[in-house]
């Protein structure tokens, strides 16, 4: 099954914005964004295996296998692309961008949201011994997923996915290598205790084209709190002629 979900097809768009979800997240996290973006930008959301309409696909616990899968499909896209990754998704997007950039088919810009630069956080590892510890961590981040996980039946469905994603993150080992040829926009929520503007500058070592840092109101999941501000920022980043940064 395809890794991509296009909620609002725009075949004449100048740019395709490929969005990578956070740990425990799914493509639908970006459904609302599709209509908020201008006509010149088509949104493609990545659907990781084992969730929503890929529920019957095996959950991945190896980070390299995840990047292998999504990078192979990214290579088939035609025209200009940009990548947006939130939290764990920022690291997935970065590693996929490195793969495609090395082939001369990388994104025109990477948006890295709420995630420490890979060269600093060389491991993403998060491990928990009990369900209560998982829930305490999720509650500390906030976001729409917290309310869903308070329901015992939904929690039973969601916890295996979260635990698989945590193992996937533990399997990540940053390997120094070539820097991206595209610029990076680094985004943070003003109230996010896991990542702030002071951490954003470290992403500069991952590109030869410079970085821009942006802070938006909200916590770790500011992307859910102020989606219109995020899509406006993305739209302003590009011109309508050729989707160049």
Automatic annotation (TrEMBL):
Q: Which GO terms describe its biological process?
A: lipid biosynthetic process
Instruction: Using the record, list the residue span of the signal peptide; answer none if the entry has no such feature.
Output: none
Superkingdom of this protein's organism: Bacteria
| InterPro entries xref list | AB_hydrolase_fold (IPR029058), TEII (IPR012223), Thioesterase (IPR001031)
Residue span, Thioesterase domain: 16-229
Q: Which family does it belong to?
A: Belongs to the thioesterase family.
Q: Know the name of this protein?
A: Surfactin synthase thioesterase subunit
């Amino acid at each position: 099954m395809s890794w991509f979900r296009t909620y609002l097809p725009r075949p004449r768009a100048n740019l395709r914005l490929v969005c990578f979800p956070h740990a425990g997240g799914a493509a639908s996290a970006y459904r609302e964004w599709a209509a908020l973006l201008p006509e010149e930008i088509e949104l493609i959301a990545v659907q990781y295996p084992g969730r929503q309409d890929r529920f019957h696909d095996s959950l991945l616990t190896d980070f390299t296998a995840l990047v292998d899968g999504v990078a192979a499909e990214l290579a088939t896209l035609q025209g200009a692309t940009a990548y947006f990754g939130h939290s764990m998704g920022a690291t997935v997007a970065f590693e996929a961008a490195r793969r495609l950039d090395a082939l001369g088919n990388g994104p025109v810009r990477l948006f890295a949201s709420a995630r420490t630069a890979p060269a600093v956080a060389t491991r993403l590892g998060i491990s928990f011994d009990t369900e209560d510890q998982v829930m305490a961590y999720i509650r500390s981040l906030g976001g729409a997923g917290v309310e869903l996980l308070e329901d015992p039946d939904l929690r039973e469905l969601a916890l295996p996915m979260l635990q698989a994603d945590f193992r996937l993150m533990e399997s990540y080992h940053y390997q120094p290598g070539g820097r991206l040829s595209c610029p990076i926009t680094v985004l943070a929520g003003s109230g996010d205790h896991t990542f702030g503007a002071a951490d954003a500058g470290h992403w500069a070592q991952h590109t030869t084209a410079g970085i821009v840092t942006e802070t938006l109101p909200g916590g770790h999941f500011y992307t859910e709190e102020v989606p219109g501000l995020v899509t406006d920022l993305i739209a302003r980043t590009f011109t309508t002629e050729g989707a160049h940064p």
